Amino acid sequence: MKDATAEIEAPAPTPDEPPSLGHMTLGYTYFNRPGADLKTHDTEVADCAAEAARTKSFDETMRTGAGQGLTGALLGSYIQSAYHRGAVASALENCMVVHGWRVVRVPDAEGVALSKLSAADLAKTLDPWVGAADPHGKVVRVWGNDAANSAYGRYSIRPAHTNNGQLSLLEATSGDLHQFEVAASPIVSQRGALDPKWPKKPLTPETLNAAPDGSTVIMVQIKGLSMHNGIGIFFNRVGDDKDIFPSRTDHGPDAILAAKGTLFAHKDGDMFVVAVPPGVWRIYSMGLAPTLNFCLGSPSFTAVAGQVVYAGSFDLGAADIGPNLDLAPAKAWFGAAHPNQDIRPAVYTNGSRFLCGGNHIYALEVKGAPFAPGYVWGSAAPTATASGATATPGAAAASPAAPSH
Questions:
Q1: Best CA proximity match to 312, nearest among 238, 369, 249, 362
Q2: 171 plus 217 within the same structural domain
Q3: What are the DSSP E strand ranges found in 166-211?
Q4: In a domain, 63, yes or no
Q5: How far apart are CA 177 and CA 46, in angstroms?
Q6: How far is CA 340 from CA 203, 205, 220, 330, 332, in A?
Q7: DSSP tag of 276
Q8: Can you spell out the DSSP letters for 201-259?
Q9: Residues 22 and 89 in one domain
C-alpha cells in the first residue's frame, strides 16, 4: 500500500491564521530560542519527543476500522497510524513552545530541500539558526497561554501534519521518534473503588449534609460550551510519585468532571458541586473526546477539610477562560437555604506537572497566580517574542523537574 499520508495533509495556513493546539504548524519549521545552542536544542527536542510519544489520536482511541472485516481493520490501522503521526507532531510542537521555543517557518521549496539533507548536513544548517535572536525564516508561533483563549483551536479529531515538516525533529532524531524510550507509567491505570460514604451524584443545596465528615466541598461553574470550545473541564486530585490515583489508597474521589452536553447547558453557566477528600486539586484537562491535557503545567489549589472552595467560573468561549473567582454565582447557588454559608475562593498556583497522555498536550496558566517552585516553563521562562526580543518572565503558569503525580 502506498504512503497516503500526504493525502490527509491540510494545505499550508495563511500567514495570519491562528495556530491550533490540535495540529502542528503546517509547512516546514524548526525551533528557535535566542541564545540556545544545538546541543540544548537536541536535548529538548528529545525530551519533548518522549512526552509526545505518549499521546494518541482520536482515531486511535476510537479504533477506526474495528468490526469492518480484515480490509476495514487494515485500513483503519493505517489511518490511525497517519493521524498518530499528526497527534505526535502537534504534541512535540506544543511541548517545545511551553519550553520557551519559537516556531520558525521557512518557505516550502527551501523546506523540502532541507528535509532531504543528511542529519549531519541539516545540523550544520540549523546550528546558527536555533539560537539566533533574529532567526532565518518567519517566527509563526510563541508561547501565549493559548489554551485559555477560545480564538485558538484546542482539539483536532484528525490532526493534520506535513511529512518531514519538523526540521528540528529530523536533525535531532533522524526522523525516528521511537529511538527515544518512553518511561513507563509507575502506576496501574485503574482507579480504586469508592467508599460508599462518598455521594455518587453532585450535591444540591438540600443535600449538603451528604458530604462526609472530614471532606471538602468544591464548586465549579462552566459556561461557553460548544463543539469548538469543548464541553467541560476535568480536575484531579494530586497523588504521590508512586500512585497518581489516590483513590487506590483512600478510596475517595480523585476526579471531578465539570461537563455538560451543549443541548442541556445553560447560557449563564452550570454549577457543579461535589464532596471530595481534602488535598491538592488541579485542572487536569479540557474537553471530553478529544481532550487537551495540561501535563506540561496546570493550575492547582489546596482544598481544606470542612471548607467550601469555589474553584471559579470558567468561560470556555472567552478570550480568557478565567477562572473568575467572584463569589456571587456560588452564593446564588446556596440561596436562601444557606444564606450565611462560608465560601472560600481557590488560591491557584501554576505549574503542576504530571505524566502526559491523552489526545493533545499543553500547559494552562491562571493569570496572576504564582508558579510552583522550580517551574521554568510557559510564562515562567524567559520566552522570546515574535519580534526577537526576550520577554521578562511573568508571575503567572509547572516543574520540568520530576513530575508530581
A1: 369
A2: no
A3: none
A4: yes
A5: 8
A6: 18, 13, 19, 12, 11
A7: E
A8: S---GGGGGGSPTT-EEEEEEEE--BTTTBSEEEEEE---SS-S-THHHH-S--EEEEE
A9: yes
Measure the CA–CA gap between 116 and 135, rounded to whole angstroms.
21
State whether 230 and 161 are in the same domain.
no
Instruction: Please say whether the beta carbons of 378 and 397 come within 8 A.
Output: yes
Together in a domain, 212 and 126: no
* 210 and 172 co-located in one domain: no
pLDDT at 12 exceeding the cut of 70: no
Q: What is the pLDDT of residues 283-331, one digit of tens each?
A: 999 987 788 999 999 999 999 999 999 999 999 999 999 999 999 999 9
Question: For residue 244, which of 355, 359, 373 has the smallest C-alpha distance?
Answer: 355
SS (H, E, C) 330-380: HHHHHHHHCCCCCEEECCCEEEECCCCCCCEECCCCCCCCCECCCCCCHHH
CA distances 78 to 7, 64, 72, 139, 162, Å, are 13, 9, 10, 33, 17
Residue 259, beta-bridge partner list: 232
Quickly count: other Cβ atoms within 10 Å of residue 273's Cβ. 23
Q: For the full predicted model, state whether its pTM sits above 0.90.
A: no
Read out DSSP for 17-36? PPPBTTSPPSSEEEEE-TT-
Distance separating alpha carbons of residues 20 and 152, to the nearest angstrom:
6
Alpha carbon distances (Å) from 166 to 30, 122, 287, 292: 6, 12, 27, 21
Give Rg (Cα) of the chain. 22
Locus of grid cell 456571587 = 328
Give yes or no: residues 109 and 216 share one domain: no
Domain range holding 81? 7-179
The set of cell numbers assigned to 353 is 506537572
- pLDDT tens for 163-195 read 889 999 989 876 554 444 445 555 456 677 888
pLDDT in tens, 244-293: 788 888 888 999 998 887 777 788 889 999 999 999 999 999 987 788 99
Is 29 found in the same domain as 147?
A: yes
Phi, psi for 264 (deg, rounded to 5): -110, -5
> 223 pairs with which residues across the strands?
315
Q: Which of 349, 350, 345, 346 is nearest to 364 (CA)?
A: 350
What's residue 194's pLDDT?
86
